[in-house]
C-alpha cells in the first residue's frame, strides 16, 4: 500500500487565501467566480506524492479572517442576537441565513396568510401573469398551426400553457383588482377561446379557472373589505363571459367530456358549478341557459342515468334551481317532456329508499323541481296526462322516504282552479282512503297495529289537499259527497283531529303574538315608527307561528259546517268545550280575506279565493 497516496496535499488554497462572499452576491459575481475556479482547476498540476514526515509539515491551520471573528453565534444562527423579547431574553431560531431564506421562500409559495397573498397580487403582478398567459396562448397556437401532425413540436408550449392557466387561479382572491384587468386586457376572450382547444386537458384547466373565478366566495375581497367593489368586479367578469358566449361553449363541452375518466368527470362537475355560480349572481341568466342552449336536455338525460354519482345529483340540483320562480323555464321544462321524465325517475323510489344521503338529496331535488313546475296550469295538465296522481298515491301507501314528498307534490298539483281536474282524478284513483289514513296516522294493511303520526309538514300539506278538494270539487257531485262522508265516518273522528290541530295552532299563535307585542313595545320605547313594512313582517311571523295552519283548518271547518248538519252539531259541541264558537272561525276567515290579494288573476268564470271566503263568511254569519 502506498501510504503517500493517503496523505495528499489538498488542492484547495489555504484559509489565508480564501475569499469571503458578500451576504447577497450578484449573479455577475457568481459567474466570474465560477470562471476563475474552472480556469484554476484546469492549470493546477497534480500534486506529487510526498512522505509521511512531509505530510505533518503540510498540515494547515486556517488563519482567522477578520470577518470570522464576529461569527461565533451557536450554529451560525443569523438572528441569535437579534431576537429578544421585552425582558431582554434571547431566542435564537437555530437557523442560518440561508436556511431562513429557504423557509421564507416556502412560506411565500404556500401563501401562509391573506396579507402575503394580497402583496403578491398587485396590479403589476396581475398584469405580468396575464402577459405570460397571453404569450403562452399565442405560442401554442403558432406551434400547433405550424406542426399540426407532430405533437412533439408543440407539447412544450402546451405544458407552458397549462402552467400559465394554473398561475391565474390566485386571481380569485382579489376580484376587485383582478377581474376588471381580466376584462380590459382581453384575457377573458382568450380564456373563452380555449374552451374549443383540441386538448381536453387544456379545456378542463380553463373550466377549473372559470369555476374558481365565479365562485361565490370570490365576491368578498378580504384585502379591501369592500363588498360592493368586489360585487361590481364580479359583475364585470360575468358580463364578459356572457358576451363572449362562454355559457354556450361550456354547454357544448358537456357532451365532449367523457365522465368515465376522472379528470373529465371533475370537469363536468366544475361546468355545472359555473352555471350555479353565475345564476346565483344573476338569476336572469337561467332563462338564457334554458332557452338558448341544450343544457335542459342534457340535465334531463343526466338524471336518468342508471347509477347514481355526484354529477347526477348536481344535475337534479340545477334543475330544481332553474325552475324556481321562473315561468319561462317551467314551460320549457314541460315542452321537453320534463314532467314525464322526472316521474319516471322518481318511480324507482316507490318501493325502495335512496341508498345514502347524496341520493336522498337527489330525490328531494327532483320532487322540489316538480313542485315548482306545478304552479303552471299547463304543467298540471301534463302531470295529469302522465298519471302523476296515481304514482303519488301509490307512494303515499308505502312507508318509504318518498311518502312525505308525494303528499307535498299532490298539494301543489291540486291547488288553485287549475287543479280541479287533478282533484277529480285523485278521488277517482281512490286517493281519499290513503290520504285520510295518513291524516289520522293509520298504517297500511301490512301494519295495522301500528300508529305512525304524520310529521308537521305532512299535516300542513294534507290540510292543503283537503282544502283544494273542498274548493274545486263541484257542489252535490259524487266526488264531493265522498269527501264529506269521510268526515262523518268513525264517529266524526276526523273532525276531532281537525279541532286538535286547530287548538295546537291557536296556542302557537298566542305565543307568537306575545313575542310580537314585546317587539312593538321595544319600537315604541325607542320612538321608532312602525312602518307598513314592519307590519308586513309581523304578519309573516304570525303566519309562520300558527296563523297559516289556523286559517287552513278554519277554512275546511267552514265548508264542512255549512254543508253537513251532523258535522255542524258535533263541531259546535267540541268548540264549546274549549270556550270557543263559530265566531272564532268567522274572525279567522275575515283576517284571511283581508290579506288575500285583489289583483290575483283568475280565468274567466272562475271564482276568486277572496270571493269564496266572502261567501263562506256570509253563509256562516247569517243568524
UniProtKB/TrEMBL annotation:
Subcellular location: Nucleus
Disordered: annotated segments: 1-28
Keywords from the UniProt entry: Coiled coil, Nucleus, Phosphoprotein, Repeat
Top-level taxonomic group: Eukaryota
InterPro entries: ARM-like, ARM-type_fold, CTNNBL1, CTNNBL1_N
Pfam families to which the protein is assigned, alphabetical: CTNNBL
Repeat in keyword set: yes
GO cellular component, one term: spliceosomal complex
Main location: nucleus
Coiled-coil regions listed: none
SMART domains: DUF1716 (SM01156)
Domain Beta-catenin-like protein 1 N-terminal: 95-207
Full protein name: Beta-catenin-like protein 1 N-terminal domain-containing protein
Amino acid at each position: 500500500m502506498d501510504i503517500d497516496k493517503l496523505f495528499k496535499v489538498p488542492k484547495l488554497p489555504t484559509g489565508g487565501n480564501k475569499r469571503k462572499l458578500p451576504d447577497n452576491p450578484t449573479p455577475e459575481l457568481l459567474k466570474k467566480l465560477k470562471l476563475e475556479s474552472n480556469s484554476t482547476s484546469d492549470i493546477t498540476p497534480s500534486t506529487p506524492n510526498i512522505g509521511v514526515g512531509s505530510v505533518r509539515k503540510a498540515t494547515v491551520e486556517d488563519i482567522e479572517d477578520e470577518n470570522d471573528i464576529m461569527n461565533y453565534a451557536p450554529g451560525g444562527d443569523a438572528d441569535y442576537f437579534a431576537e429578544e423579547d421585552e425582558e431582554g431574553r434571547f431566542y435564537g431560531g437555530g437557523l442560518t441565513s440561508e436556511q431562513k431564506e429557504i423557509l421564507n421562500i416556502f412560506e411565500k409559495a404556500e401563501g401562509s396568510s391573506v396579507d402575503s397573498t394580497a402583496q403578491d397580487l398587485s396590479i403589476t403582478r396581475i398584469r405580468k401573469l396575464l402577459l405570460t398567459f397571453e404569450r403562452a396562448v399565442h405560442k401554442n397556437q403558432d406551434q400547433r398551426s405550424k406542426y399540426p401532425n407532430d405533437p412533439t413540436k408543440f407539447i412544450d408550449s402546451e405544458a407552458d400553457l397549462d402552467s400559465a392557466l394554473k398561475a391565474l387561479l390566485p386571481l380569485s382572491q382579489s376580484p376587485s383588482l383582478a377581474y376588471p384587468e381580466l376584462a380590459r386586457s382581453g384575457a377573458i376572450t382568450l380564456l373563452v377561446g380555449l374552451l374549443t382547444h383540441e386538448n381536453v386537458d387544456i379545456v378542463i384547466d380553463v373550466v377549473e379557472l372559470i369555476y374558481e373565478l365565479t365562485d361565490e366566495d370570490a365576491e368578498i375581497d378580504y384585502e379591501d373589505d369592500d363588498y360592493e367593489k368586489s360585487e361590481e368586479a364580479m359583475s364585470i367578469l360575468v358580463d364578459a363571459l356572457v358576451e363572449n358566449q362562454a355559457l354556450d361553449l361550456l354547454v357544448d363541452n358537456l357532451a365532449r367530456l367523457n365522465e368515465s375518466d376522472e379528470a373529465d368527470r371533475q370537469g363536468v362537475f366544475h361546468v355545472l358549478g359555473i352555471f350555479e355560480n353565475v345564476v346565483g349572481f344573476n338569476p336572469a341568466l337561467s332563462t338564457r341557459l334554458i332557452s338558448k342552449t341544450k343544457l335542459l336536455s342534457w340535465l334531463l338525460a343526466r338524471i336518468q342515468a342508471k347509477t347514481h354519482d355526484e354529477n347526477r345529483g348536481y344535475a337534479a340540483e340545477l334543475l330544481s334551481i332553474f325552475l324556481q320562480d321562473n315561468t319561462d323555464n317551467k314551460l320549457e321544462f314541460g315542452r321537453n317532456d320534463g314532467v314525464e321524465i322526472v316521474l319516471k325517475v322518481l318511480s324507482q323510489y316507490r318501493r325502495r329508499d335512496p341508498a345514502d344521503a347524496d341520493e336522498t338529496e337527489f330525490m328531494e331535488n327532483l320532487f322540489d323541481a316538480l313542485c315548482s313546475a306545478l304552479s303552471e296550469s299547463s304543467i298540471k295538465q301534463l302531470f295529469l296526462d302522465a298519471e302523476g296522481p296515481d304514482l303519488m298515491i301509490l307512494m303515499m301507501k308505502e312507508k318509504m322516504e318518498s311518502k312525505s314528498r308525494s303528499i307535498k307534490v299532490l298539494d301543489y298539483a291540486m291547488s288553485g282552479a287549475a287543479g280541479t281536474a287533478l282533484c277529480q282524478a285523485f278521488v277517482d284513483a281512490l286517493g281519499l282512503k290513503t290520504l285520510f289514513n295518513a291524516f289520522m296516522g293509520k298504517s297500511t294493511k301490512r301494519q295495522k297495529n301500528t300508529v305512525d303520526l304524520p310529521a308537521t309538514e305532512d299535516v300542513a300539506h294534507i290540510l292543503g289537499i283537503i282544502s283544494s278538494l273542498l274548493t274545486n270539487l263541484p257542489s252535490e257531485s259524487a266526488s264531493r259527497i265522498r269527501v264529506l262522508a269521510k268526515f262523518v265516518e268513525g264517529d266524526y273522528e276526523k273532525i276531532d283531529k281537525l279541532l286538535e290541530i286547530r287548538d295546537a295552532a291557536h296556542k302557537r299563535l298566542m305565543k307568537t303574538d306575545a313575542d310580537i307585542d314585546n317587539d312593538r313595545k321595544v319600537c315604541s320605547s325607542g320612538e321608532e315608527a312602525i312602518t307598513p313594512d314592519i307590519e308586513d313582517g309581523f304578519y309573516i311571523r304570525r303566519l309562520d307561528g300558527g296563523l297559516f295552519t289556523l286559517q287552513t283548518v278554519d277554512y275546511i271547518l267552514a265548508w264542512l259546517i255549512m254543508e253537513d248538519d251532523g258535522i255542524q252539531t258535533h263541531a259546535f259541541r267540541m268548540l264549546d268545550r274549549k270556550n270557543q264558537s263559530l265566531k272564532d272561525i268567522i274572525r279567522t276567515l275575515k283576517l284571511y280575506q283581508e290579506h288575500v290579494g285583489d289583483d290575483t288573476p283568475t280565468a274567466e268564470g272562475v271564482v276568486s279565493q277572496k270571493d269564496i271566503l266572502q261567501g263562506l263568511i256570509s253563509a256562516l254569519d247569517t243568524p
